[in-house]
Amino acid sequence: MSPSVHPWRAGLLLVQRDLRLGLRRPGEWLQPLVFFFVVLTLFPLSTDLLSRLTDIAPGALWVAALLSSLLALELLFREDGQDGSLEQLAVSGLPLSWLLLAKTCVHWLLTGLPLVLAAPLVVMAYGAPSRAVPGVMAALLLGSVALSLIGAVGAGLTLGLRRGGVLLALLVLPLAVPVLIFGARATALAIALEPMAAPMYLLAAIAVLSATLAPLAAAAAVRISLE
Amino acid sequence: MDWTWFHRLGSPPHFYRIAGQWVPWFAWLAALTAIAGLIGGLGLAPPDYQQGEGYRIIYVHVPAAVLSTMAYAVMAVGAGVGLIWRMNVAHAVAASCAAIGASFTVVALVTGSLWGKPMWGTYWAWDPRLTSELVLLFLYLGYMGLRGAIDDRARADRASAVLALVGVINLPIIHYSVDWWNSLHQGHTLLKFGKASLPPSMEIPLLLMMLSFTFYFGAIMLIRARGEVLRRERNARWIAEAAGAEAAGAEAAGATR
Fold first, then answer.
1. How far, in Å, CA of B158 to CA of B138, rounded?
2. Which of A1, A73, A98, B222 sits in a 20 to 30 Å window from A44, CA-based?
């Protein structure tokens, strides 16, 4: 079957459709953001060292971002898997990895970008200097892109499983270790107002590598799950 | 190049038979090298001038750690072959590697922490090797969890194969990132066995133990893979024939005795 739509156009249409659907249900993509703030509230409450809050800020920020992106992942394919849209994409004759990349981009726009935009609040609340804000946001930008892409593979593998949620965490979190390490390091350097190029390059490398390979793996995973 | 041997291995009866022939060889080689390695390592090798007798745990720890990654490599190769050529036997091999690899990982972690207490003064240090070994354990557990969660076997095979391949690309990245993370933290300055040159009286038993663990892994993996093949093919005719042949063989052996 030859597709009548050019892949570029199909990707663009899919982005528009998913954005429209997502924006009509603000509750869904606001939940991970609220969860992000809740986790970040728990960290100061769980320590006595309020004077050293800035020290735990990078770790807290990245653990919260990781958990929040994990929570959001269930939204990525669930709806489309249930109503058969995903199956239609798989049999459309268009490259599924490309279409899933488009879907993952929208997912990041709705659940990853809000975290990046919320980062200045976190920086202030944890007592870090406001000059650290651009660096922290840049690190979180690259990191959240990588997390969404890596997560898409896990979401594809656990699509339609009964105990999907906990399993998804077990599958994705070990793979996210490098993102956590470089992201937290870049954030720590940004807060200390030191040059942060080295971890940023590595974070960017991970983001590019996941953008290249993760959609292929996610497409294979989705096809297997739909069989 | 002639690839018929490869395609023949993909046939379950052939694999079942060949694996059955290999298991005793692997098992005996494992036992013999283990006896030699343990005598050499625990008896003949001199005590270390710094660590005394305590270093002897490396004769279990190092082979277990090496095999924990080797099992992952075998699992990933099996998964890749199974995914590309749709070879059921390769999936059976991959599936039987996971639990063994996870056990080796646990053994490496436990022996490492037992050794760490007298040597570093702590059971656990956030050393890069320990940390990546722990992440490896989580990868194994995720693989096994995914297999367990999917009822349909063909889907479980292929989904877990994708996960194993994603993991194998990620493992070096995880390893190097943890390495990098640790070098920034300036943790313990460790004795690195890999870099220190061991005298032959210590090194030969270690190599023997590594060989032994490898053969042991081969034997256990083939036994598990045979079981897995049997479970998959339980309705096939060749199983009844193989079982009949084995029973006849056992009877003949009983009669001659």
1. 20
2. A73
Strands annotated E in chain A:
none
DSSP A204: H
Phi, psi of B94 (to 5 degrees): -60, -45
State the best of B131, B135, B181 to mutate against chain A, taking most chain A CBs within 10 Å: B181
Q: What is the DSSP letter of A5?
A: S
The three-state DSSP-derived secondary structure of chain B is: CCCHHHHHHCCHHHHHHHHHHHHHHHHHHHHHHHHHHHHHHHHHCCCECCCEHHHHHHHHHHHHHHHHHHHHHHHHHHHHHHHHHCCHHHHHHHHHHHHHHHHHHHHHHHHHHHHHHHHHCCCCCCCHHHHHHHHHHHHHHHHHHHHHHCCCHHHHHHHHHHHHHHHHHHHHHHHHHHHHHHHHHCCCCCCCCCCCCCCHHHHHHHHHHHHHHHHHHHHHHHHHHHHHHHHHCCCCHHHHHHHHHHHHHHHHHHHHC
Positive or negative: CA dihedral B142, B145, B149, B154: positive
Taking the CA atoms of B242, B248, B250 and B252 in sequence, report the sign of the dihedral they define: negative
Per-residue pLDDT tens for B150-160? Answer: 888 889 999 99
- Which class for B233: exposed (0-12), middle (13-18), buried (19 or more C-beta within 10 A)? middle
B146/A157 touch (CB, cutoff 8 Å), yes or no: yes
Beta-carbon count within 10 A of B49 CB: 7
Which residues share a beta bridge with B52?
Answer: B48
For tokens 């849209």, name the residue: A85
**pLDDT on residue B185:** 58
| Measured CA distances, A124 to A111, A146, A194, A220 (Å) | 21, 25, 18, 42
Q: Are B162 and A177 a contacting pair at CB < 8 A?
A: no
Q: Indicate if the alpha-carbon torsion angle A21, A26, A32, A33 is positive or negative.
A: positive
Question: What are the residues of chain B with a beta carbon less than 8 Å away from any beta carbon of chain A?
Answer: 83, 135, 138-139, 141-142, 145-146, 149-150, 154-155, 158-159, 162-163, 165-167, 169-170, 173-174, 177-178, 180-181, 184
CA-nearest of B107, B158, B227 to A217 is B158
Q: What is the pLDDT of residues A62-119, one digit of tens each?
A: 999 999 999 899 888 888 888 888 899 888 888 999 999 999 999 999 999 999 999 9
Using alpha carbons, select from B66, B51, B106, B52 the residue that is nearest to residue B206: B66
pLDDT in tens, B170-190: 888 888 888 787 776 544 444
Cβ neighbours, 10 Å, residue B140: 27
Please, are residues B145 and B139 in contact by the beta-carbon 8 Å criterion?
Answer: no
Among B135, B146, B177, whose Cβ lies nearest the Cβ of A182? B177
